[in-house]
């Protein structure tokens, strides 16, 4: 059995092969039950949550991601979220690897957004705005730059100093990045807008989206959360990673659905239809596209298999 810590996981999941691995998993398919949510009582504190996300390819691999969310961990100076991925043989059940769940999640999430952008963003999209300064922000910059000719990166956060910190890291990797304080001005100029926040209220307004832009929404993972307003979903052609996940958890779509702003039929395609070619992506240079991702267990399985096989053959990039 192999154990991949955060550094091992990052080195074994470079974005070009990860994007391709997720694309292949969507087209080839796997068994993906609905994720499990369990409430865990913590005496004297807010309840915690245990999430289990299983998936398997019969006869090949099976895996499950275990994620715990303890919201009061800040009083102990600990992260609220911990996670691990257990990858096993689909033939024998033998445990093959324990993989850092946080790094796997961050990288597969960004890779999935880039995979969607490959089908939905304009081919000449060169300006990227990242909204949010958390763990995903740098990954989103790296991943989108693999599929589109990104020449300028803007980073916005509620705390400008955190945006500056992300920009410093991005510049260290060779990206032409700058921190911005005027979200509206940045949004109006961006070709791709990628949001990864925990916002409960819209941050990006539909009135700000220029013709031909692509809005990527990967935060706001509950029904009561959202990063875009009704005008954004009204103006855009709508796409999701999976309809099942979006209709269960995506506040950016569920709230306008409940208000009658859109209908389920307005979701043009899910990711498997885009990558298999059974549904078209962008149809014109002036079309505004919106991709909402809530995460799917097959993305974790694809990343875990890639990490394990990369380590097993000893080809981890340095």
TrEMBL record:
GO MF, one example: oxidoreductase activity
Entry superkingdom:
Bacteria
Q: Which residues cross the membrane?
A: none
Q: Which UniProt keywords apply?
A: NAD
GO cellular component terms attached to this protein's record: cytoplasm
| Gene3D superfamilies per the UniProt record, alphabetical | NAD(P)-binding Rossmann-like Domain, ornithine cyclodeaminase, domain 1
What does the record list as coiled-coil region(s)?
none
- Give the range the annotation lists for the signal sequence: none
Spell out the Pfam families in the cross-references.
OCD_Mu_crystall (PF02423)
What biological-process terms (Gene Ontology) are attached?
Answer: carboxylic acid metabolic process
InterPro entries from the UniProt entry: NAD(P)-bd_dom_sf, ODC_Mu_crystall, ODC_N
User: Per its UniProt record, what SUPFAM superfamilies does this chain match?
Assistant: NAD(P)-binding Rossmann-fold domains
What PANTHER family does the database record attribute to this sequence? Answer: KETIMINE REDUCTASE MU-CRYSTALLIN
State the family it belongs to: Belongs to the ornithine cyclodeaminase/mu-crystallin family.
Instruction: Quote the protein name from its UniProt record.
Output: Ornithine cyclodeaminase family protein
Q: Which organism is it from?
A: Rhizobium glycinendophyticum
